[in-house]
Design goal:
The chain is α/β, with parallel strands linked by helices. The chain is built from 13 helices and 21 strands. An eight-stranded mixed beta sheet has the order 14-13-10-15-18-19-20-21, sandwiched between helices. The chain has a five-stranded parallel beta sheet with strand order 4-3-5-6-7, with helices on both faces.
Length: 418
């Protein structure tokens, strides 16, 4: 059964009066997480993609060929000797709009990095001229081994998207980094890559840091000074950067949102903790995007016990001290001259005037300015903003999904990266 001989745009090919579905190769290597790929396959097929599953021989020990064939509607083989007249080891990769390998074991990553081709999946990886995504899954020690890290670095240099594994329960009683991200998250990365249509994701090989959420400054063990930031814009920035090939560190403050797939997540609470985490992560980053709402002040004293209400007495005034200005510090003392720094400004009045003044004071390259309020922006799925540039440029972003604003920010960042 042929799967096509020509590759078109990921949005579908027109053939006569019919539009062909985007073609996706789902590679599955031999890890216990192979069962999760069934859910990824379901999401891809139900969203209108034509998916061909190419497992390794060891993957079939976990999920059988009959399952993959029934779910995808295509025959399944692990070797190049099936249907030889159709040259599957060449044709499958040539006609694909996307190849995603989930799970990708340490062995599969090593073969891909070194160009080995001893089965149908590794041959497909060599012939593919479309975006390639690897979703690694293995024990922590295997992921952290220098050989695996070098193989991952090699694949990223070539333009492949290697999403970071999740932290959690592994096989047996082990816990750590190496867990396959949830299928929903992997699907979102696939969707983003297909939507952009580029053969090589434009942020491939870049390291970016994104902050999200709102810091909380403790007053006593049960109370804090905080803000209304949901973190959704920062998470959109992290997701879109990962989908465009970047290695992303997301530093989140009190968001209650699920960790996005393929992203290293650092959880913090206060502005002081945020500063420490950002300065550490920014040391080798190409881009830092400060989307978190950082408290300008914190209580000068922390009450170790709950502050009690006393009958007939007014509460004592709360004395505040300034928190460090992390954005200004980053902009003034960059670890590398070509690092791009992006800030956010939430304003309630004189939005552009205040934004331009903040851009001047902070010294960042780009400043995303938006109007906020109790029922505006905070917690919403949409946003509207103007991106101000240090060189005087202004880019309005109309009201729409926060991912659209995120993509605009990354487009502007790319113009400034060397």
């Amino acid at each position: 059964m042929s799967w096509g001989k020509s590759r078109g745009k990921a949005t579908g090919r027109v053939r006569g009066d019919a539009v062909e579905k985007p073609k996706v190769v789902l590679g599955v290597s031999g890890g216990i997480a192979a069962y999760k790929a069934c859910e990824l396959l379901r999401r891809l097929t139900e969203s209108g993609h034509d998916v061909r599953v190419v497992p390794t021989a060891s993957a079939l020990h976990f999920v059988g060929a009959a399952t993959w064939s029934a779910l995808s509607g295509h025959p399944v083989s692990t070797e190049v000797w099936s249907d030889v007249h159709e040259v599957p080891h060449v044709r499958i990769g040539q006609s694909a709009d996307l190849v995603v390998v989930a799970p990708a074991t340490a062995d599969l990553l090593a073969k891909a990095a070194h160009g080995l081709a001893d089965d149908l999946l590794t041959n497909t990886l060599l012939t593919a001229r479309c975006p390639v995504i690897f979703a690694p899954a293995m024990h922590t020690e295997m992921w952290e081994h220098p050989a695996t890290q070098e193989n991952v670095a090699t694949l990223r240099r070539r333009g492949a998207v290697v999403i970071e594994p999740a932290v959690g329960r592994l096989t047996g009683v082990d816990t750590g980094k190496g867990r396959l991200p949830e299928p929903e998250g992997i699907f979102e990365v696939c969707r983003r890559v297909l939507a952009r249509g580029a053969t090589v994701p434009d942020l491939a090989g870049r390291r970016v840091v994104v902050t999200a959420g709102g810091t909380r400054e403790p007053l006593d063990p049960v109370r804090y000074l905080g803000n209304r930031s949901s973190g959704k814009q920062g998470y959109a920035l992290a997701r879109t950067a990962a989908g465009r090939g970047a290695r992303v560190t997301l530093i989140e403050a009190n968001t209650q949102l699920a960790d996005p797939a393929g992203v290293d997540v650092v959880h913090i609470g206060t502005a002081i903790q945020l500063r420490e985490a950002v300065l550490k992560a920014a040391a080798d980053a190409d881009v830092v995007v400060m989307a978190a709402a950082v408290a300008d002040f914190r209580p000068s004293e922390y009450a170790t016990g709950k502050i009690k209400k006393k009958d007939g007495q007014e509460p004592a005034p709360i004395s505040l001290v300034r928190n460090p200005d992390i954005l200004a510090e980053l902009s003034a003392d960059r670890p590398r001259a070509d690092q791009v720094v992006v800030g956010f400004a939430a304003e309630t009045d004189d939005v552009l005037a205040n934004g331009r003044e903040k851009l001047r004071r902070k010294g960042c390259d780009l400043l995303v300015v938006n109007e906020v309020g109790e029922r505006r922006t905070f917690g919403a799925e949409e946003n509207e903003a103007v991106v101000l540039a240090a060189d005087g440029g202004e880019t309005p972003v109309p009201y729409g999904p926060k991912e659209a604003l995120a993509d605009t920010v990354w487009d502007l960042v790319l113009q400034r990266l060397g």
